[in-house]
Amino acid sequence: MEEEMHTDAKIRAEIGTGCSPRGPGCSLRHFACEQNLLSRPDGSASFLQGDTSVLAGVYGPAEVKVSKEIFNKATLEVILRPKIGLPGVAEKSRERLIRNTCEAVVLGTLHPRTSITVVLQVVSDAGSLLACCLNAACMALVDAGVPMRALFCGVTCALDSDGTLVLDPTSKQEKEARAVLTFALDSVERKLLMSSTKGLYSDSELQQCLAAAQAASQHVFRFYRESLQRRYSKS
Amino acid sequence: MAEPVSVAAEYLAGSRARAARTVLGQVVLPGEELLLPEQEDAEGPGGAGERPLSLNAGARSRVRVVCGPGLRRCGDRLLVTKCGRLRHKEPGSGSGGGVYWVDSQQKRYVPVKGDHVIGIVTAKSGDIFKVDVGGSEPASLSYLSFEGATKRNRPNVQVGDLIYGQFVVANKDMEPEMVCIDSCGRANGMGVIGQDGLLFKVTLGLIRKLLAPDCEIIQEMGKLYPLEIVFGMNGRIWVKAKTIQQTLILANILEACEHMTSDQRKQIFSRLAES
């Protein structure tokens, strides 16, 4: 069963003084999500943010090799494949970030000595890749029915040289930015699960970006809810 | 930093716990907390005027509610762990708040005690068979767990055979164990599934739908062709009809059942009955 949910146009997240007054306001790109599109994995999802698209598949709880099994919880594995070329060190580091986020949220103690594998394939990269991977992984985990204590989402902020905050930057904006910050937030209390930052920024700018990301995550979670309601309303 | 705090406070309002009764039949997401019925009445100082005085004024009396698949106890509340529709079943008799569970759509099976499943024998080691049931571990099946089996009279089970049995041990800490007899020692339909026929996999939700008491799909199929069919709660269905073509038609109908409305299904059955 394929469910596609498109939000209309851009979702604007006006934060008031969170964004620089010179900027046009903080806005996220167009979202789209499709679930249960692959037949082999136990759960799959494709997440689109503007032109960035990531396909995720989840297998689990499945058999695990004795060398990798953990006696009291599930072994979570994340595999990220880039669009072209072999996976390198950057992919390994992103895999670790995504795995740490998933481990904080998935109830692994319900399935000890099993493995839950998340496979992510980058279909197109036009900025905010890590956030899109996190969103796709969350939707795929929900589709597979893996027990979780909350949902999570990824939001990227870019700070350019005059301090303007841009949410969900394109690759051009990321290249020209002074700093790019990615946050993973949970759905229960918008707490910070993971942050990955690159560049130069001050302490107050970090707090501003975090606040803007928390406000933007509200839109992402509302999108998740609408998308899942539409999926279950057909059955 | 007053700014991030004030922004965060606005959005915390969305995550307040809701009463389970008000959410019945709606889609719930992982992370939501649900309040059980007696807790709403006890909250608030006024309360209902007619409650009898209790000697232990502080403690609330609890109604025993069973927490089904997709829900976990979290303090006094229920935490939703899977996405799906929230359902409730009233208790048949006696006290108790009934059962709450989440109806979710899944493909992966997790062994549950008492479930009848179709397994494939993968190995024979000494006195036990290893049976693949689609979970994270193969289940073990002792050769004595068949009707009329003794140490001298061993059952005729080979690697690759299909077995219909039920779980006697199935929890997260131990290897699942299955048997092909019921508690009285009779087979009751369980055991090795015969020759021929077709085994295929569907989602767990479809099996539950087909096994519901008010499902007419199986009766309609029976009127179409005479058939033998076995449903395993692990998403596996074995079907056998007179010819291979009929078997394949039935398998295709069952796989497509999930996405068809009842009108489309009736159309297909009537078209097949004519030809």
TrEMBL record, chain A:
Residues 28-147, 151-215 form the Exoribonuclease phosphorolytic domain. The keyword Chloroplast does not apply. Keywords: Cytoplasm, DNA-binding, Exosome, Nucleus, Phosphoprotein, rRNA processing. It comes from the Eukaryota. It holds the Pfam family RNase_PH. GO terms for biological process: defense response to virus; DNA deamination; nuclear mRNA surveillance; poly(A)-dependent snoRNA 3'-end processing; rRNA catabolic process; rRNA processing; U4 snRNA 3'-end processing. It is found in: Cytoplasm; Nucleus, Nucleolus. The keyword Cytoplasm applies. InterPro entries: ExoRNase_PH_dom1 (IPR001247), ExoRNase_PH_dom2 (IPR015847), ExoRNase_PH_dom2_sf (IPR036345), PNPase/RNase_PH_dom_sf (IPR027408), Ribosomal_Su5_D2-typ_SF (IPR020568), RNase_PH (IPR050080). GO terms for molecular function: DNA binding; RNA binding. SUPFAM superfamilies: Ribonuclease PH domain 2-like, Ribosomal protein S5 domain 2-like. GO terms for cellular component: cytoplasmic exosome (RNase complex); cytosol; euchromatin; nuclear exosome (RNase complex); nucleolus; nucleoplasm. PANTHER family: EXOSOME COMPLEX COMPONENT (PTHR11953), EXOSOME COMPLEX COMPONENT RRP46 (PTHR11953:SF1). Belongs to the RNase PH family. Homodimer. Component of the RNA exosome core complex (Exo-9), composed of EXOSC1, EXOSC2, EXOSC3, EXOSC4, EXOSC5, EXOSC6, EXOSC7, EXOSC8 and EXOSC9; within the complex interacts with EXOSC3, EXOSC8, and EXOSC9. The catalytically inactive RNA exosome core complex (Exo-9) associates with the catalytic subunit EXOSC10/RRP6. Exo-9 may associate with DIS3 to form the nucleolar exosome complex, or DIS3L to form the cytoplasmic exosome complex. This is Exosome complex component RRP46. It comes from Papio anubis (Olive baboon).
From TrEMBL, chain B:
InterPro entries: Exosome_RNA_bind1/RRP40/RRP4, KH_dom_type_1, KH_dom_type_1_sf, NA-bd_OB-fold, RRP40_KH-I, RRP40_N, Rrp40_S1. Residues 26-105 form the Exosome complex component RRP40 N-terminal domain. PANTHER family: EXOSOME COMPLEX COMPONENT RRP40 (PTHR21321:SF1), PNAS-3 RELATED (PTHR21321). It holds the Pfam family KH_6. Component of the RNA exosome core complex (Exo-9), composed of EXOSC1, EXOSC2, EXOSC3, EXOSC4, EXOSC5, EXOSC6, EXOSC7, EXOSC8 and EXOSC9; within the complex interacts with EXOSC5 and EXOSC9. The catalytically inactive RNA exosome core complex (Exo-9) associates with the catalytic subunit EXOSC10/RRP6. Exo-9 may associate with DIS3 to form the nucleolar exosome complex, or DIS3L to form the cytoplasmic exosome complex. Exo-9 is formed by a hexameric base ring consisting of the heterodimers EXOSC4-EXOSC9, EXOSC5-EXOSC8 and EXOSC6-EXOSC7, and a cap ring consisting of EXOSC1, EXOSC2 and EXOSC3. The gene is EXOSC3. The lineage of its organism: Eukaryota, Metazoa, Chordata, Craniata, Vertebrata. Belongs to the RRP40 family. It is found in: Cytoplasm; Nucleus, Nucleolus. SUPFAM superfamilies: Eukaryotic type KH-domain (KH-domain type I), Nucleic acid-binding proteins, Ribosomal L27 protein-like. Residues 197-244 form the K Homology domain. GO terms for cellular component: cytoplasmic exosome (RNase complex); cytosol; euchromatin; nuclear exosome (RNase complex); nucleolus; nucleoplasm. Residues 35-54 are annotated as: Disordered. GO terms for biological process: CUT catabolic process; DNA deamination; exonucleolytic trimming to generate mature 3'-end of 5.8S rRNA from tricistronic rRNA transcript (SSU-rRNA, 5.8S rRNA, LSU-rRNA); isotype switching; mRNA catabolic process; nuclear polyadenylation-dependent rRNA catabolic process; poly(A)-dependent snoRNA 3'-end processing; positive regulation of isotype switching. This is Exosome complex component RRP40. One of its GO terms (molecular function) is RNA binding. Keywords: Acetylation, Cytoplasm, Exosome, Isopeptide bond, Nucleus, RNA-binding, rRNA processing, Ubl conjugation. It comes from Papio anubis (Olive baboon).
